[in-house]
Structures are given as structure tokens and as C-alpha cells.
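hey can u check if this looks right to u? its 413 residues, i copy pasted from the old doc so theres a chance i mangled smth
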Amino acid sequence: MDGIVAGQAKAGAMPGPGNVPAAPGPASAGPASAGPAGTGQPGGIPVAEPGDASCDLVSADDLPDGLVIADCKGKITVFNRAAARLTGISPALAVGRDVRQVLPFCDSQDRSWWTLCEPYGGLSTRTRHPELSLYLPDGTELLVTVGYVRTPRGRGPREGWSRAPGEVQRLAISLRSAEQRSRLERSRADLVSTVAHELRSPLTSVKGFTATLLAKWPRFTDDQKRVMLETVNADADRVTRLITELLDVSRIEAGRIEIHREIVDIPSRALKIISGRIAAGDPPERYQVEVAPGLPEVWLDGDKVEQILANLIENAVRHGAGTVTTVVEPAVVAGVPGVAVAVRDQGPGIAPEVAPRVFARFWRAKRRGGAGLGLFIVKGLVEAHGGEIVVQQAPGGGAEFRFTMPAGTPEFG
């Protein structure tokens, strides 16, 4: 028989309603009729011996998801290891017992799923229940999919609607952990919360100043109007920057970052960013650029390299102290020529236990603001170039963000 045979499945095939064995009866009572699944004891799932014709089959215990099979009377005949891990129930205690007692599923409103759906006595046309979230009595949340295996409705000419409905032969229940979905939902909630928080302040400022100017325009001097309009412009830039970061995050997570390679002079890009910050009012002595001799010609995406440098320098200014030093030097990356860039500050540095989290989305230092997306974007852009980035203690104290990239080759065609 194709599919799962006495608790086994064809390699690469997932269990489903149509490939599950008939429930063992008195005439077929054997190793799969009682005892813990996945063992060599009675009730275990048989394992094919080397050279056996069934060696192309794998045990139900090899399936990554939980699999529970109940016969026409609700007695569990298969309870694989994944199901035991997800539910905390031993196969030895599950096999042979009523599935409704072993897995008393309830929905989010604490209603019994078995009572609501009546899988053994409900509609005879049902073949499956799509994946839904159900709970065990201890609060464990599982993603459950249920498939029906029914007896044929009979053969020959149809006589009116008298043909008997197909009775349930087996239920095939697939179990998956809900932890991944919960993490995704929390991540989405964090995204909404962060975006709402970051947008509220600049939009409130824009709304307040524009409403004031419209209502009392003649009362303000030209200098007062200019200050208000400059504030509105800065807040609008802040909103635009946040939206750009969110789009970058979306592209990084979807793997849709496009790299347009050109010859890039990294020291010149760093000096350009620093010049802009000095023009905005930062003291020139705050910044320093060191360039080692022998830099190779690098073919990188100039705009993205500039974005990386701008984020790292801004991060050093905001969270560090003292002089911010940008070091550019040649390096060997994966056996080929490349470049290494380090941005250092003289602040308190980053604690070793925090270092692995700084590139996570929405990670922020406790005392400072920001959306917490800058370093996540930096890591994604560096990796899109085939490089890597690390954070470590700077030689003179403080934090050092160091990334390496292969020199790359020009694009033709």
C-alpha cells in the first residue's frame, strides 16, 4: 500500500487523509495496534530492515510535524514523537486511548472543538478541517489540521438520494507548534507600535505649526515664520527617512535588495558624510578618517555604501562619545581581495551580552530614541554585497562596528 504503512510513510511524502492505513481490527492486530509509537515493542511503528522491500518507507516518527491517527471509534493508533514533544504526552499513554480524551482541544473561547465539530457524527461530506489554532487544557497552543478518511459511498447506479454516506474510517490529525506564528504576530505588533510612536511626534509638530501659521499668519514676524517652517521641513524629512527605512527593511526581509555596482571611493564617501554633518553644526574635531595604503579597486553599490557609512557614523555620534574615527583598509574576504571599514567611538562601548542583539530589528539603546532599524538595515546591505559586519570593543575603548566586503567585479551587459 502506498503512503503510510502501519505508521510509515513514503520518503518525501506528507501524511494526509488519503495515504493513511486502515485502522487495525481484530484480524489485523499486530505491532501497530497497541503500545507506544516509534518503538519496536507491540504498538510501535515498524522499522524496515536493510534489504527489505519497504526500505523506501520512513517511520511516522521521521515526520517533522506531529501526527496522530485515530480509528473509526476514536482510538489512537499512531502517535509519533513530534506529537509527543508538542503535547507533552507519552506515546505509551496515548496509543489505544480515545483521542478526545488524550487531546481535549478547545478554541479561544474555551469551547470543546470535538463537541462543536463532531468529526465522527457531523456532515458526511467533510473531508478535512483547515489549519486552526486550538488549545490543550494546560494552555498549550497548537496549529491543528484534521483530515478524514471515509468509506466509499458505494458503486453502481445512484437510486435517488438513498446511498448511505461514507462513514469515518480514520482521522489524521497534524499538529504544529504555534510559537513561530506567535513570534510573527509579536513582530508585527512591534512594527505597528514602533511606526506609530515614531510618526506621532513629527506629525504632531507638523500639524501644530501649520495650523498656527494658517490661523495667525499676520501676527508672526518673518524670522518666526522661518523657524516654524524649518521645523516643519525637518519633521517632514524625519517622516520620509522612517518610511525609507521601512521600505529597506521590507526589501531586506524579502531578499529583494538590488546591487548596482560601480567603482566606489569609500574614503571620499566617508568624508562627504562628515562634511555634511560639520555643515549642520557638528565640530570638525569630532571626526577623523584614517586610510591605509594599498586599497584595492572596489566595485560596490555607491548609494548603499554611503547609506551604511551614514548610519554607522550617526550611530557612533548618537550613542558614543569623543572622536568618531572611520578606518578604511585592505582586507582578504573569503580568499579574494576586499576592503574593511571600521567606525569607532570613545564612548562606554557595548556590553558583550548585548552585542549579539544590536543588529536585530527594533533594537534600541535604553537612553536614546530612534526607530531601531538603522543597524538592521546596515547588516542587510552589507550582506547583500557578500560581506559581513561585527561589533566589538574598539582598541582605545568604546564600540567598533567593522564590516568587510569583497572588492567585487564590474557588471557587463
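Residues 179-216 form the longest helix (38 residues).
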